[in-house]
Design goal:
The complex is a heterodimer of chains A (about 400) and B (about 270). With about 400 residues, chain A is of the alpha/beta class. In chain A, helix 10 packs across helix 12. With about 270 residues, chain B is α/β, with parallel strands linked by helices. Chain B is about 50% helix and about 15% strand. In chain B, strands 5-4-3-2-1-9-8-7-6 form a nine-stranded parallel β-sheet. In chain B, helix 5 packs across helix 6. Chain B is globular and about 45 Å long. Classes of the chains: A alpha/beta (about 400), B alpha/beta (about 270). The interface between A and B is large, with 37 and 43 residues.
Chain lengths: ~400, ~270
């Protein structure tokens, strides 16, 4: 008998609510509002309507034949989350949470962002619902993802650069949490991944689970069978959890999460929390973390700002320990090559984050270590990365 | 095993009718030598409890001042061993009660039981994890409650009355009431509602109530002294340490303690 994460706030031993006392009432309120909302037909109908007519769901499951030839694996399907409004899976979650915030009567929204995709998706939902929006973003990411900063501002959000620590997603999350502790009475924090204190990992996963539900239905229709392998990149892990959830009970489907190895495992310059970290407490939950012997959080590194995070969602930690999912890693160089290759092969520019999943499929194909059919979560488009990657190749 | 220094100190304070003074120190900031001198000086000037902060890389409940001191301590190479070492040195010279103030992960990384045992051996009296609220991890909370250290808990302005009672009843040594909804940091003024809120906590708490977050000046300390059993001062001391070194911080600490000693206690406290 498996304990229900909705009541325990735990995935195996992971997750929980390790937060300052000040936030406890807001987390209780959020859990209650979420339980009520998901039992409310009107709420679900509005969310569905927005998914179809605003976000653009269902997204296609596209068979990538030239990629198949290059990788030596057939068939390969891409779940086109890049075709969502705003260009990534992130909007699935932000529209859902903005609806929840409105239901709770909280007019002010805050968010953290790394690559800027979650920030853009949050700013978009706030524009739609006429809510105040503040997005925290590390200055290193502001530099790497300047296009998304401008998009957020255009959408009416205030982007607050974060100078502390490593000036990336981790520090933006710290600052968003500090804002929330201070303004918790009128503010909802839209966390962008399956991280943070309960009930966030559960809520974000549920809002993202539409990815896997659609993909499962779509592949059954075209292939008449389930995929043998499902692949997604993992930073915090929201697109992966959204993809994995619908397949978790299908034991014949291999679930592969691709972490960012950065400059290589063992280099001290990676974001591969499951491959290189150990359990600890950060940002409100117990999960795998990159950390030193004293429990100080180690700086993460990845060329992909959205993967550049020293932790990972607690449900991934549980899937890792249980062996239900396997977590591999791909470095900066291979991800950059995959980033350049897909546009030439398929006319699709993937996000650098997504490129990690693509690179692993190609490597595994070359080693004949992957079973088809393969479904890759094409979590986002790469327009935001074009300037940065072109600067790397100079 | 425990000498119950915290309980004994608050009992003495109750007898003389003086609100306690609880300074916070980030261990290792700007260097361990500073911390050593600061701790000795704070003990000598009559601090009632000292909160010794373990620096953490990601202090999400702290404002800019303690973020800076924590990062500074880590940049100076401060380790958990160093924190326990400097505590043990203080204990060689003073019986002032000491509470270790830490985020959970440094405890978790060492093994919570190991950490607590080593802290007790070094002379700690209490432990205050900032991110372990009531009910977050019952097994871990039980281990801390049964440990030789007093497990000091936090109550926030957002905590509802039923939970206030539960927290106060499960807090050991004293309970820490957070003076405002927000992160740590020096402030120009205390909130108007503080007296009522702290009073409500005190009414139901079986242990003394300390108030902190934003308590920055002797005037604040005096005001807190009228509504609480002790005042905690952190960021203001760190700021003074930056501006005036250890002597400057100790001078402010002396003023804060004197202000508390002169604090007019409310009538019902006798």
């Amino acid at each position: 008998m498996t304990a229900n994460p909705a009541t325990t706030g735990r995935f195996g031993p992971y997750g929980g609510r390790y937060v300052p006392e000040t936030l406890i009432p807001a987390l209780d309120e959020l859990a209650a509002a979420y339980a009520e909302a998901t039992a409310d037909a009107a709420f679900l109908a509005e969310a569905d309507d927005l998914a179809s007519h605003y976000i653009g769901r269902p997204t296609p499951l596209y068979r990538a034949r030239r990629l198949e030839a290059a990788a030596g694996v057939t068939p390969i399907y891409l779940k086109r989350e890049d075709l969502n409004h705003t260009g990534a899976h992130k909007i699935n979650n932000t529209v859902g949470q903005a609806l929840l915030a409105r239901r709770m009567g909280k007019p002010r929204i805050i968010a953290e962002t790394g690559a800027g995709q979650h920030g853009v998706a949050t700013a978009t939902a706030c524009a739609l619902f006429d809510m105040e929006c503040v997005v925290y973003m590390g200055t290193e990411d502001v530099r790497r993802q300047s296009l998304n900063v401008y998009r957020m501002e255009l959408l009416g959000a205030e982007v607050r650069p974060v100078e502390s620590g490593t000036r990336t997603l981790k520090d933006a999350t710290n600052e968003a949490l500090r804002d929330w502790v201070t303004n918790v009475r009128d503010t909802h924090y839209i966390i962008g991944s399956v991280v943070g204190p309960h009930p966030f990992p559960l809520i974000v996963r549920d809002f993202q689970a539409v990815i896997g539900r659609e993909a499962r239905r779509q592949i059954l229709k075209v292939e008449g069978r389930l995929p043998a392998t499902v692949v997604a990149c993992v930073g915090g892990g929201s697109n992966a959890m959204g993809m994995f959830h619908a397949f978790a009970a299908d034991d014949e489907v291999a679930l592969i999460g691709v972490e960012a190895a950065g400059e290589g495992l063992g280099s001290g310059r990676s974001s591969a929390s499951l491959n290189e970290g150990r359990p600890g407490v950060l940002h409100g939950s117990l999960s795998y973390l990159l950390q030193d012997a004293d429990g100080q959080i180690a700086p993460a590194h990845s060329v992909a700002a959205g993967l550049d995070y020293p932790g990972v969602g607690p449900e991934h930690a549980h899937l890792h320990d249980s062996g239900r999912a396997r977590y591999v890693s791909v470095g900066d160089g291979a991800a950059e090559r995959a980033f350049r290759k897909l546009p030439a092969l398929e006319g699709i520019i993937p996000a650098l984050e997504t490129a990690h999943a693509l690179a692993w499929v190609e490597e595994a194909g070359r080693r004949r270590e992957i079973e088809a059919p393969v479904v890759i979560c094409l979590s986002g488009r790469g327009d935001k990365d074009v300037v940065h990657v072109s600067s790397l190749s100079q | 095993m425990s000498h119950d220094r915290i309980g004994a100190r608050f009992a003495e304070l109750a007898v003389v009718g003086r609100p306690g003074f609880i300074p916070y120190v980030t261990a290792g900031y700007p260097t361990l030598d500073h911390t050593r001198d600061l701790l000795a000086g704070l003990a000598e000037l009559g601090s009632d409890v000292i909160e010794l902060g373990v620096p953490f890389s990601d202090p999400m409940a702290d404002g800019p001042t303690i973020q800076r001191s924590s990062q500074g301590a880590l940049d100076a190479g401060t380790t958990v061993d160093d924190v326990l070492g400097v505590l043990a040195e203080l204990r060689g010279a003073s019986e002032v009660p000491v509470v270790i103030f830490s985020y959970l992960n440094p405890l978790y990384a060492r093994g919570v039981e190991t950490f607590v045992r080593e802290a007790a051996e070094a002379g700690a009296d209490g432990i205050l994890p900032t991110d372990l609220p009531l009910g977050a991890d019952p097994a871990l909370e039980t281990r801390l409650l049964e440990s030789p250290l007093d497990f000091v808990r936090l109550i926030a302005p957002t905590t509802d009355p039923a939970r206030v009672r539960q927290i106060a009843r499960s807090s050991q040594g004293f309970v820490y009431f957070i003076a405002r909804t927000g992160v740590t940091g020096a402030r120009a003024a205390l909130r108007n509602e503080l007296a009522r809120e702290a009073g409500a906590v005190r009414e139901v708490s079986p242990v003394p109530v300390a108030v902190g977050f934003g308590v920055s000046t002797p005037e604040h300390a005096r005001a807190v002294g009228t509504v609480a059993d002790a005042a905690v001062v952190g960021s203001a001391l760190v700021n003074r340490l930056d501006e005036g070194g250890v002597d400057g911080a100790l001078a402010l600490a002396g003023e804060l303690r004197a202000a508390l000693a002169a604090s007019p206690r409310s009538a019902e406290d006798g």
